[in-house]
Amino acid sequence: SRLRDLYQLRGVIYLFEDTMPFIAGQIARTARAYLSQLLPPFFKALLTYTGRASYSWHSPGHGGGVAFRKSPVGRAFHDFFGENTLRSDLSVSVPGLGSLLDHNGPIAEAEANTARTFGADHSFYVINGTSTSNKIIWHAFVTRDDVVLVDRNCHKSILHAIIMTGAIPVYLTGSRNDYGIIGPISLESFSPDNLRQRLAEHPLLQGREARIKLAVLTNSTYDGLCYNAELIKDELEDAADILHFDEAWYGYAAFHEFYAGRHGMGKKRGFDRARHPLVFATQSPHKVLAALSQASIILAENSVEQQLDVERFNESFMMHTSTSPHYGIIASIDVATGMMAGEPGRSLVQETLDEALSFRLAMQQTAERLDEEQWWFDVWEPEQALDNEELLASDWTLDNNAPWHGFGEMADDYALLDPIKVTLLTPGVEEQGRLGRTGIPAAVVTRFLAERGLVVEKTGLYSFLILFSLGITKGKWSTLVSELQEFKRLYDNNAPLDLTLPAIARSGHYPGLGLQDLCHQLHRFYRQQNMVKVLRQIYTELPDIVVRPADAYQQMVRGQVEMVPAEQLAGRISSVMLVPYPPGIPVIMPGERFPEDSSAITDYLRIALAQDQQFPGFESDIHGLRPIVQEDGSVRYFVDCLVE
């Protein structure tokens, strides 16, 4: 470390060898040089231009914030956001800042710097989120009737891209454990033999030679499972033209050796990529790094046989990009890049890992202090994960048939659990997914936390996800541990709901109940409905695809659909996505047919509607399901289906 400190020296001053003005000048010059190289290119240009106090004769119309000061409500807006925010809200009419659409000037420098920093050959700044980044890639390469290989556990923007391009999807599904955590798609699923079989059996591909134009995979999964990206590239090198990793929640992976080889840009620039496909990764710096909301980047890695044609790709980029981009969002991506470059970036990721590991250890130590017969929240992680003082990727990999993960067979070194994404398990689930006599549904715990200002990332039946990021501190996670301990105390004492869940109690639906009573009632409901089994089936037994998703959507636009009651969906073709949240994975897509007989999908809808009626405050959230209030005040649920 002394040698590293020596490298930081820029000069030596002896106080009495020169005059004070000269020494002050030396210090000022060194400070200016440091600040000059500190700021990344676009942010530096924006800062410089804003500091010149130039009059604005171009859009935006507020003229650097002046217009807001002419109204009381506008003045409140101005005071809240501040002078610099509004002065730096500029227009493409300022040539010195470059163009996002043409990728020139300081914006081009910033994008090139991001590509270098993230280990990519190209990068593109996107100002309206990774949903748009995904659509840009698809519109650049996928056309009607092209075959696409799709991770069913994907973001809905991918499903929108399927509709927009008219592609024919071939879906791959992962396993699901007893807690409802989605596992990785098996490596075997990407094998040439399996893909040939899937294409041959697809109902919309009969009688034609089909090749996969683009394959998309969510990495890491919502629950923090990271693929060995290089193994997947090897499997797909002869099977797909384009490989797209949706890494919206994984933007830090390039900056720490723990994730080496487990992200889309895993190979260093200039490394021989063999015959891998052209690879894209889409990331959301605002989710896990330090950037403003909607900040997104597209990263591209050339292959030996396929180089990205930037000019052609930019046609799709311009199709989806505003001609009035927000410079603050652009600057935040540039700054996020600057923060992550070099050793400081690794240190930031290491700090985040350290906080997550400390939280995991605190949860473990809390359990050890309790008597054996007392309950506590389990942490979903390998048994040996916290045994080593050194963080080793091998301690976090999913071994074949390891009981802790519950996904069964697993290829060697294929998937890894990200320590930063922490899943807590609540009591209630026993071996083979059976629900015990008593249990604590996770929705009650997270509702308790939310009423105390702690909002978690995702809630399952008996699990909830805590997402660590650069902004998480010891104070934040220590408060979470304290609130979980408080929940346990209140639960054990069956404290009344007006003390534990006052918002729920005010609804008047649970008179006289305590916290333990409510948990037991909801748990009993899940047990009677065999909810664990139903949820497993709806995500592993896919419905039949009858028409292209794009064709089903077009029929909806033309009005060739009708609302079908939820209890009468058997045999009908959906024109919409039906997506339960969580986990946000569609149980049916446009163009897919609801099974003729009783199925897991119809069972799930029936159970969800019953839960809405019996447990107000814990309603299900299913996008695509339309509630309609009837004349008698009751609510019926409908799904738009094709007219046949």
State the helix count.
22
- Uncertain ranges: none
Please bin the fraction of helical residues.
25-40%
Kindly give the count of domains.
4
Whole-number mean pLDDT:
92
**Whole-Å distance between the termini?**
73 Å
Strand adjacency order, main sheet: 1-8-7-6-4-2-3
The amount of beta strand, in percent, is: 5-15%
The gyration radius over C-alpha positions equals 27 Å
Q: Structural class per helix/strand content?
A: alpha+beta
The CATH superfamily of the largest domain is identified as: Type I PLP-dependent aspartate aminotransferase-like (Major domain)
CATH class of the largest domain: Alpha Beta
- Named CATH architecture of the largest domain: 3-Layer(aba) Sandwich
Summarize the structure.
This protein is of the alpha+beta class and 644 residues long.
What would your notes on this structure say?
- The structure is a single chain.
- This protein has 644 residues and is α+β, with helices and mostly antiparallel strands.
- The protein has 4 domains: 1-38, no CATH class; 98-322, Type I PLP-dependent aspartate aminotransferase-like (Major domain) (Aspartate Aminotransferase, domain 2), CATH 3.40.640.10; 344-528, Aspartate Aminotransferase, domain 1; 535-642, Ornithine Decarboxylase, Chain A, domain 4 (Alpha-Beta Complex), CATH 3.90.100.10.
- Helices cover 38% and strands 14% of the residues.
- The chain is built from 22 helices and 20 strands.
- It has a 7-stranded mixed β-sheet with strand order 1-8-7-6-4-2-3, with helices on both faces. A 4-stranded antiparallel β-sheet has the order 9-11-13-12.
- Helix 3 crosses helix 13 and helix 14 runs parallel beside helix 16 (474-492).
- The mean pLDDT is 92.
